[in-house]
């Protein structure tokens, strides 16, 4: 316990230095700014803004990226509430009641409750990260290659179960991601794999390149399908009265608590918990409500619960990254990319060797959430004005920004072309109802999984039963198998459909 | 009688649609070869000739025709034969299964076209990956070689693709979504243009030009407004990236620099 406080104190010492405070502020602001733009989700925002952190010292860069991350998430909820267009998947359910509230002239309280809920969730999640950090790091040191491999299998199974739509398609996307991750030189033997003798592919496909393609360009192209001026029912009346009433607060407080709890748990799971967290929190609120018919007509709990849940999950998803070195979702994978650029290999060693880095980042998350609360509510007018910029002007600007961003990562024109190609692939995936998120997760975990698989088999002299005889590994594998069986059972399939069905009606 | 007459045009339409579906799958089956030949045809323009396109085309055609006997000979023949050439492997691993699928497409009417064609493309991707990793080493004693995991994933993806094809074939599903051409075309052109122009022409020209090309992606663009925004954005990027962020981007065309 004493250690916890000294760790947090160290963190705040780092995070409160003027330069880091400034970086956190810039990150949160820029993140919100880009996150507010429709059609630019969190992953694309972080990928696009990755280059602007290159010149910074490692701690500063990570603090700024984390700021961008939750700024973008915050921006996504703003658009959900004001124009009924979710900036990203995690705020899809927020549109249901948030936009209804805005239509009833209660946009102010909706935004405020979303911000307050997010802040509360952020506080809880920060404490949770600080508490779980040390014990999980210790556990991680008991992990050998076999355990790591099994853990990642479990994570991928989670991703499959938590993905929208057909299980078969989700698994296919993961395998495709694994295949994409193998393009380039083999880590162990150095052999060139599936690179078609193209020298630029020898280093493999950049993660940011693929992410920008399937999440950035594909989204832009898809938005153009409907015509540039998507029917954006912008809430026209001026937003007055930001403060929620006492009644609002009483109604939403328990929802915030429940959302935070659900989100914190789901976020730790590898496999992109933030999306499912918001869906689950909303469904849960609707289930236990005394009058479920209020939902979809502007119930404030319908904003409070999913917003708290997705923010809690967004923060707790740092836990597997910081303690085990396993990125649980696409944004965390970009974080790994950023860390690698600065010469940091995420994992249990970082926690011990560079505590100021890890704890500084954790403390800055809390500060960043506070900043978002204090700064963004008064600034909401600016974001609204930004939303009035027509899409016909916005999308070419986003295209150029993404192109410059990708080019500047490696100074490679081929990366830009590849991102374009992946944009078309992403467009095709959307048209055929394939989810791009599991693909990205497969690509992220691919190299780690393969390396650990091969190392484990090398150590066990080719005996594949090692994954089932070592107790920890066996436990993880059993959990994965159980989860997969559960997912195929009809009752859970129905439940999955129910949870995700919310966004469609 | 009237009923039958009424159905006739419907059936021909269906048949025609399936014909085009089969043609698309066939095109996919021959896509790697076509891309290679086309690339060989245009590569002299970039002063990196990679071979005579006609010769490459003939080689592929021969491989397609002789792949099966070559494979049978290599597998069941008594005389040890040299490893199969890459073009033959491509025909065996990638083209034959897809040509078979093209024939299947010609004969059936999938109930869920979205899944059916989605699955076929996954099979194609898996086949391509299997072919591309066929030259890599597999298991070496108890050490997993460079090719083992890619091939494992390729087989897995092929199986999953086949599963999705089966789902699309037998269970009712959504029809193919409509594709727009304008947005994808001009956005891709803008991206491609930027990639080609950034090194020789610098940030200012390439950013502005790509902005204008991307703006063609929608018919709703108003040119005066777009030009003004384009200029402002280019100016902003030229200050932000090289100066504020210190990224090494060339601003002006190479020939203008001393």
Automatic annotation (TrEMBL), chain A:
TM segment ranges: 21-40, 46-70, 110-134, 146-163, 170-192, 262-284, 326-345, 357-383, 472-492
Alphabetized UniProt keyword annotations: Membrane, Transmembrane, Transmembrane helix
Pfam families: TctA (PF01970)
N-terminal signal peptide: none
DUF112 domain: residues covered: 21-441
Source taxon at top rank: Bacteria
PANTHER family found in the cross-reference section: TRICARBOXYLIC TRANSPORT PROTEIN
UniProt-recorded name of the protein: Putative tricarboxylic transport membrane protein
Organism: Rhodopseudomonas rhenobacensis
UniProtKB/TrEMBL annotation, chain B:
Boundaries of every DUF1468 domain copy: 118-250
Pfam families from the UniProt entry: TctB
Segments crossing the lipid bilayer: 21-42, 84-104, 116-134, 154-171, 183-216, 228-252
UniProt KW Zinc-finger keyword: no
InterPro entries: DUF1468
Keywords assigned by UniProt, alphabetized: Membrane, Transmembrane, Transmembrane helix
UniProt protein name: DUF1468 domain-containing protein
Organism of origin: Rhodopseudomonas rhenobacensis
């Amino acid at each position: 316990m004493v250690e916890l406080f000294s760790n947090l104190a160290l963190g705040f010492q780092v995070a409160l230095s003027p330069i880091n405070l400034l970086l956190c502020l810039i990150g949160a602001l820029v993140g919100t700014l880009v996150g507010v733009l429709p059609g630019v989700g969190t992953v694309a925002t972080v990928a696009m803004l990755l280059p602007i952190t290159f010149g910074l010292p490692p701690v500063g860069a990570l603090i700024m990226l984390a700021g961008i991350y939750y700024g973008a998430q915050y921006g996504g909820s703003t658009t959900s509430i004001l124009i009924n267009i979710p900036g990203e998947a995690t705020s899809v359910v927020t549109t249901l009641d948030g936009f209804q509230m805005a239509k009833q002239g209660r946009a102010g309280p909706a935004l405020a409750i979303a911000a307050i809920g997010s802040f509360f969730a952020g506080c809880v999640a920060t404490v949770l990260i600080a508490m779980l950090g040390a014990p999980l790091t210790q556990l991680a040191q008991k992990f050998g290659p076999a355990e790591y491999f099994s853990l990642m299998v479990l994570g991928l199974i989670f991703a499959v179960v938590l993905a929208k739509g057909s299980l078969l398609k989700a698994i296919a996307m993961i395998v495709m991601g694994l295949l994409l991750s193998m393009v380039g030189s083999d880590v162990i033997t150095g052999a060139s794999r599936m690179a078609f003798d193209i020298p630029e592919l020898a280093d493999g496909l950049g993660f940011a390149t693929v992410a920008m393609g399937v999440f950035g360009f594909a989204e832009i192209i898809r938005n153009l399908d409907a015509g540039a001026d998507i029917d954006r029912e912008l809430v026209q009346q001026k937003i007055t009265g930001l403060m929620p009433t006492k009644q609002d607060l009483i109604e939403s407080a328990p929802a915030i608590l429940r959302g935070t709890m659900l989100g914190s748990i789901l976020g730790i799971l590898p496999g992109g918990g933030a999306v499912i967290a918001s869906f689950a929190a909303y469904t849960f609120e609707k289930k236990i409500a005394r009058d479920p018919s209020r939902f979809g007509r502007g119930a404030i709990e319908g904003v409070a619960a999913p917003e708290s849940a997705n923010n809690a999950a967004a923060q707790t998803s740092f836990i597997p990254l910081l303690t085990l070195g396993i990125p649980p979702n696409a944004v965390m994978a970009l974080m790994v990319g950023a860390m690698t650029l600065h010469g940091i290999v995420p994992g249990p060693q970082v926690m011990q060797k560079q505590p100021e880095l890890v704890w500084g980042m954790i403390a800055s998350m809390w500060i960043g959430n506070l900043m978002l609360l204090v700064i963004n509510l008064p600034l909401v007018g600016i974001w609204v004005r930004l939303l009035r910029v027509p899409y016909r002007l916005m999308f070419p600007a986003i295209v150029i920004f993404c192109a410059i961003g990708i080019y500047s990562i490696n100074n490679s024109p081929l990366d830009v072309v590849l991102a374009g190609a992946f944009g078309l692939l992403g467009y095709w995936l959307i048209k055929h109802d394939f989810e791009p998120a599991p693909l990205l997760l497969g690509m992220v975990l691919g190299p780690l999984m393969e390396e650990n698989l091969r190392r484990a088999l090398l150590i066990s002299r080719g005996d594949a039963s090692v994954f089932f005889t070592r107790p920890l590994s066996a436990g993880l594998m059993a959990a994965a198998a159980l989860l997969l069986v559960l997912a195929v059972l009809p009752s859970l399939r129905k439940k999955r459909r129910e949870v995700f069905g919310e966004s469609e009606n | 009688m009237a009923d039958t007459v009424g159905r006739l045009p419907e059936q021909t339409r269906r048949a025609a649609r399936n014909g085009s579906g089969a043609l698309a799958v066939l095109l996919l089956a021959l896509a790697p070869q076509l891309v290679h030949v086309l690339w060989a045809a245009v590569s002299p323009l970039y002063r990196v000739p990679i071979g005579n396109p006609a010769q490459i085309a003939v080689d592929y055609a021969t491989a397609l025709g002789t792949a099966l006997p070559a494979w049978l000979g290599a597998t069941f023949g008594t005389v040890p034969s040299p490893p199969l050439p890459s073009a033959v492997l491509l025909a065996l691993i990638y083209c034959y299964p897809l040509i078979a699928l093209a024939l299947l497409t010609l004969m059936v009417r999938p109930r869920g076209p979205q899944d059916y064609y989605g699955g076929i493309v996954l099979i194609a991707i898996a086949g391509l990956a299997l072919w591309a990793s066929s030259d890599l080493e597999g298991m070496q004693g108890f050490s997993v070689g460079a090719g083992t995991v890619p091939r494992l994933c390729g087989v897995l993806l092929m199986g999953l693709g086949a599963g999705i094809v089966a789902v699309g074939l037998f269970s009712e599903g959504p029809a193919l979504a409509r594709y727009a051409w304008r947005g994808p075309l001009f956005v891709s052109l803008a991206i491609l243009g930027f990639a080609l122009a950034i090194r020789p022409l610098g940030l200012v020209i390439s950013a502005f030009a790509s902005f204008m090309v991307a703006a063609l992606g929608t018919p709703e663009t108003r040119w005066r407004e777009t030009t003004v925004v384009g200029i402002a954005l280019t100016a902003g990027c030229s200050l932000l990236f090289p100066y504020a962020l210190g990224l090494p981007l060339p601003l002006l065309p190479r020939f203008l620099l001393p």
